[in-house]
Amino acid sequence: MKEKNNIKQKLSELEGVSKTLESSTERRNMLNTLAFNYAERFYASMKQEAAYHSFDETVNDLLNIPLNEDGEGAEEAFSFIEEKIIRPGLNSASGRNFGYIPGSSLSIAAIGDYLAAVTNRYASVYSSSPGAVLLETQLVKWMADTVGYPSGSGGYLASGGSIANLTAVVTARDHARLKGEDFIRVVVYLTDQTHHCVDRALNISGLRECIRRYVPMDSAFRMIPGELDRQITEDKENGLIPWLIVASAGSTDSGAVDPLDKIGSIAQSHKLWFHVDAAYGGFFLLTDEGRNRMKGIELSDSVVLDPHKSLFLPYGTGALLVKDIVNLASSHAYNANYMKHAASDTGIYSPADISPELTKHFRAMRMWLPLKIHGVRVFRSALEEKLLLADYLWREFSTMNDIEVSPPPQLSIFLFRWVPEGGDHELLNRRLHDSLLRDGCVFLSTTEVYGKFYFRVAVLSAATHLEEAEIFVQTVKEKMAEIGR
């Protein structure tokens, strides 16, 4: 009896401490107010805030700040977040962020994430949270309809394009019934513009030894279908195993869209799995121009789209669609005694049944809520605006002295470089980039194409409008003039 009372006493003491995790209404209101006020300051300063904040090695002092036993005040913590954690580096939410594939900070998506975290539903299994699973299933169906896939297709919301592409490669591997002994004869067809995550996906999925054919491209960095067909035929004649074609619908480097209709026909005639990486460009399908550019995407067997790119959602939101969901399910089947209750005969696939994840964030909320409240038309208009802005900027740079531009943007990315007569172009362009970083008003990323340094202009932030585009052009002109002097 005494031992029991001691245990109960100890439990009471522990409960008194641990219950502080279950905050009171008063404390929640205080924390919500601090978070809301910070968010409002962030949104209010977006137009004035630099697109890039330079930093030095002192930022690494963060590693030496301890997590104390007794915690600290909430106001101090929020102030620390604002000044020390968020501020250094790239401000991806800025409308003057023209580098990489810009992110956005939609307030309604943030609210969706907040609700998902508060309710913390287990979004992987239908029997645990049918609402969360059905919401994701509805979004997948909407994306499949947008791509042009038939009934019987399916997919899931991933953390991004890398995991989605990996899942596609594994599904294609299993569909072809490839064995380890085959891998040295298996051939994958791609281009120099294919995202590096596809290479990594091949390595992770056991296909490091496969043959990778880099199909020649035209002057706009697009795969040449005739060269693809010729290479497949030659590989068959040489006793190899042509297996997978990976095409881009908006490559990361140049924004190139491969001729998907012709590639799809070639894939069908040779019976190869046809995968399209549309992580960047996929949601331009909502526009007439984008659908025209990506004609033939419906011929693919699988496609990756990233809502955190061309749907302006927070990072950590990708998607994989597969034309025949049975292929996806068979590659990710599992059997666990403790999960037998999770089986469902409703015909609804749980995300855990068709993806590598068993535990997953309730990602659907951050995507569904913005679409539900704003409607698809608003997103379509924003994407049409970005297409037109990219064309506008390309024309501006095309008319500037000493500027060399890539072919016109196929979606919302193009390249340019500064090539003044008699100058060291490599050195001058790197000096221009350094100057832009120090200034921070606009942010540009860089790439190398055929051994030459280029600036990448990626127009995809929800906050990028004509005003930001004109500031961008003027800033580049001013920096070139300063360096020229």
| CATH architecture title of the largest domain | 3-Layer(aba) Sandwich
Poorly predicted ranges: 337-344
The CATH superfamily of the largest domain is: Type I PLP-dependent aspartate aminotransferase-like (Major domain)
Q: What portion of residues belong to β-strands?
A: 5-15%
Q: pLDDT average, as an integer?
A: 94
Number of helices: 16
Distance between the termini: 89 Å
The CATH C-level name of the largest domain is Alpha Beta
What is the β-strand count? Answer: 13
Strand ordering within the main sheet? 3-9-8-7-6-4-5
Q: What is the overall shape?
A: globular
Short structural summary:
The chain is an alpha/beta fold. The protein has 2 domains: 26-64 and 74-105 and 375-485, Aspartate Aminotransferase, domain 1 (Alpha-Beta Complex), CATH 3.90.1150; 121-361, Type I PLP-dependent aspartate aminotransferase-like (Major domain) (Aspartate Aminotransferase, domain 2).
Task: Write a structural description.
The chain has about 475 residues and is α/β, with parallel strands linked by helices. The protein has 16 helices and 13 strands. The strands form three sheets. The chain has a seven-stranded mixed sheet with strand order 3-9-8-7-6-4-5, sandwiched between helices. Helix 7 links the parallel strand 4 and strand 5 (about 210-215). Helix 2 runs parallel beside helix 3 (about 75-85) and helix 4 packs across helix 13. It is globular. Residues about 335-345 have low confidence and may be disordered.
